[in-house]
Fold this sequence. Notes:
The protein is of the alpha+beta class. The chain has a domain at 30-145: Zincin-like (2-Layer Sandwich). Helices cover 44% and strands 9% of the residues. It has 7 helices and 6 strands; from the N terminus they run αβαβββββααααα. The chain has helices at residues 2-17, 35-51, 100-107, 111-128, 150-157, 164-172, 180-185, and strands at residues 29-30, 63-66, 72-73, 79-80, 87-88, 95-98. The strands form 2 sheets. It has a 4-stranded mixed β-sheet with strand order 1-2-6-5. The chain has a two-stranded antiparallel ribbon with strand order 3-4. Helix 2 packs across helix 4 (111-128), helix 3 (100-107) crosses helix 4 and helix 4 (111-128) packs antiparallel against helix 5. The chain is globular, with a radius of gyration of 21 Å. The termini are far apart.
Amino acid sequence: MTLRVLLGALCATLLAAAPTANADAPPPLDVTGAPLVQRDLALAVRYWAVEEPALTSPCTPEQVVVAPMAAATGNDGVTLPAATVWAETDLSSCVIDISRSMWRAMHGRDRADRRAACAMFAHEYGHTLGLADTASVPMLNMDSSRQDDPLCAQAVNGWRRTSRRDRVWLGLNRLADVPPTWVQLGE
Length: 187
């Protein structure tokens, strides 16, 4: 009996002292209340209200956490290393995990990175609505270069740097006060 107790205590001690896989990783950081996160989430809600008006998120509100990423499966079953994954959200989950590199990109000077991060929120918000990754819907494509969110384009780049196609989308969906000639001429 004493031997069992000693062995049990030894195992418990070893398990408690064993390092975890991500022992060096910082703990998750809740950034839900950050102004850029709030802006990008609001833009994501507006985007999906236009694209899929029948869908509503079960979350009130979504939580955004900076956390370590896991490897992911991309289009056509290609494995993406965790270091290249910017964000991940389980289908119908209320928690959007973003990587430290995405968090840095959101606050950086590079407009393309800031726009990509904003569009990534729209992509991840789609998962909170229960939508899976698919190559047939550009915003849900795992290839982020195919994702386009006109609301993000306007918020990050301003009207004059927003593409003609995005201006037309914004105008047709009454999400911007667009002079008719700007939509027609792409000014």
